[in-house]
């Protein structure tokens, strides 16, 4: 049987990239799961703290993330849905993993390197170095490995940007298994599960991914955006001035991104979709993307509006989820503590 684990940071309402790149797969895996398969989905508050957060906003985002996951169809009766920060086993295991993970390996993570690059651009006059970045950013992927492995997860549905972190998690699992040998290897090596849409790009800068942190709010579509907001964001998406539509991610990333989004909505390949627009313009493509995205988000958006005021229900789901998660990870932690000698 499979153990599926995945997580999302509560740093604002999830966007179309999160949805098409990962969350849609969570729901599909839940639908296709066999009776013995386990599904565990987490809102990872501790990861969000690696960047400065306004406490009140974080608290709201944390709750909103739960409401969004319920509204897209995560069923708390079938899946364990919980806040990472309500299960201390994650940090306990992260500490043990920190003690077997070379710093050099963490410095090679592209997310860490891009943090350094960002700081350099923001302040290219003076030398910027690691002293400006907190240690949590460096060990972020170690906590992520603990999230996954504390449930001995076998399958991890995430977007392309998380692939390197997952490789590190496999690496850490393997190192642990070899360092602390027992009768059998303790951790499985978790596998990457991709959606057909691994990477959704920014609507304003199609050379970078759609992200929650980009300053321009027009660059991303939130799962709670109104029909008017969806329309204005897609109409304003950066494309190119070449006439006719072709799927060419390298030289026409803006148009390719729109085709990718449309293809995800219609369950087709972007190249197939492109054929229908060969003799049409960007305006025609955008109009259809607007309709497709609106169709995709209409139901979850209405469900979110209904759920967000259901305080008692949301608290109940979180409480039950956390208690299921803790009971589940306690079993692994007991084995782990025994292997390392903390008994
Ligand atoms: P986060 O919160 O940045 O994103 C949640 C999920 O959305 C995917 N994603 C995208 N996919 C396609 N195109 C995009 N533009 C795009 N932006 C985001 C991400 O790949 C992710 O699957 N470190 C993780 C959270 C995490 C986690 C874990 C995930 C913590 N522990 C354990 C899996 C397992 C993150 O920051 O995701």
N-to-C CA distance: 30 Å
The CATH homologous superfamily of the largest domain is named HUPs
The biggest beta sheet is recorded as:
3 strands, parallel
Structural class determined from secondary elements? mainly alpha
Q: What would the CATH topology of the largest domain be?
A: Rossmann fold
Helix-residue proportion? 40-55%
The average pLDDT value, as a whole number, equals: 95
Rg over alpha carbons: 21 Å
Architecture of the largest domain, CATH level 2?
A: 3-Layer(aba) Sandwich
Question: What are the key terms here?
Answer:
343 residues, mainly alpha, Rossmann fold, Tyrosyl-Transfer RNA Synthetase, 2 domains, 3-stranded parallel β-sheet, two-stranded parallel ribbon, 5 strands, 6% strand, globular, binds tryptophanyl-5'AMP, EC 6.1.1.2, nucleotide-binding, aminoacyl-trna synthetase, protein biosynthesis, Tryptophan--tRNA ligase, mitochondrial
Provide a concise account of the structure shown.
This protein is mainly α. Helix content is 54%, strand content 6%.
Secondary structure elements and their pairing?
Layout: E1 3-8, H1 16-32, E2 38-43, H2 45-48, H3 55-71, E3 80-83, H4 89-98, H5 103-107, H6 110-122, H7 135-149, E4 155-157, H8 163-179, E5 191-193, H9 227-235, H10 253-266, H11 270-276, H12 282-307, H13 311-340
Parallel strand pairs: 1-2, 2-3, 4-5
The structure holds tryptophanyl-5'AMP.
Keywords: Aminoacyl-tRNA synthetase, ATP-binding, Ligase, Nucleotide-binding, Protein biosynthesis
Protein name: Tryptophan--tRNA ligase, mitochondrial
Organism: Cristinia sonorae
What does this structure look like?
This protein is mostly helical and 343 residues long. It folds into two domains: 3-199 and 312-340, Rossmann fold; 224-305, Tyrosyl-Transfer RNA Synthetase. It has helices at residues 16-32, 45-48, 55-71, 89-98, 103-107, 110-122, 135-149, 163-179, 227-235, 253-266, 270-276, 282-307, 311-340, and strands at residues 3-8, 38-43, 80-83, 155-157, 191-193. The strands form two sheets. A three-stranded parallel sheet has the order 1-2-3. It is globular, with a radius of gyration of 21 Å. The model has no long low-confidence stretch (mean pLDDT 95). The structure holds tryptophanyl-5'AMP (TYM).
């Amino acid at each position: 049987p499979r153990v599926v684990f995945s997580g999302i940071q509560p740093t604002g309402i999830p966007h179309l990239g999160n949805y098409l790149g990962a969350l849609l797969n969570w729901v599909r895996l839940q639908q296709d799961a066999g009776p013995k398969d386990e599904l565990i989905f987490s809102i990872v508050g501790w990861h969000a703290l690696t960047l400065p957060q306004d406490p009140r906003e974080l608290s709201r985002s944390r709750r909103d993330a739960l409401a969004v996951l319920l509204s897209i169809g995560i069923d708390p009766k079938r899946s364990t849905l919980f806040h990472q920060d309500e299960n201390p086993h994650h940090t306990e295991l992260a500490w043990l993993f920190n003690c077997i993970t070379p710093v050099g390996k963490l410095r090679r993570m592209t997310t860490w390197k891009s943090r350094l690059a960002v700081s350099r651009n923001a302040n290219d006059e003076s030398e910027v170095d690691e002293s400006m970045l907190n240690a949590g950013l460096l060990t972020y992927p170690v906590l992520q490995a603990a999230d996954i492995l504390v449930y001995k997860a076998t399958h991890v549905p995430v977007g392309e940007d998380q692939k390197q972190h997952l490789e590190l998690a496999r690496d850490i699992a393997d190192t642990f298994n070899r360092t602390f040998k027992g009768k059998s290897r303790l951790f499985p090596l978790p596998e990457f599960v991709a959606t057909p849409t691994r990477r959704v790009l920014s609507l304003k800068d199609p050379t970078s991914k759609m992200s929650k942190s980009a300053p321009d709010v027009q660059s991303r579509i939130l799962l709670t955006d109104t029909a008017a907001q969806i329309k204005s964001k897609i109409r304003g998406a950066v494309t190119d001035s070449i006439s006719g539509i072709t799927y060419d991610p390298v030289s026409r990333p803006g148009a390719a991104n729109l085709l990718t989004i449309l293809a995800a909505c219609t369950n087709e390949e972007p190249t197939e979709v492109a054929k229908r627009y060969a003799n049409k313009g960007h305006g025609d493509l955008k109009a259809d993307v607007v309709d497709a995205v609106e169709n995709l988000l209409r139901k979850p958006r209405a469900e979110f509006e209904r759920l967000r005021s259901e305080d008692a229900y949301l608290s109940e789901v979180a409480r039950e989820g956390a208690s299921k998660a803790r009971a589940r990870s306690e079993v692994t932690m007991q084995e782990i503590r025994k292997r390392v000698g903390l008994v």
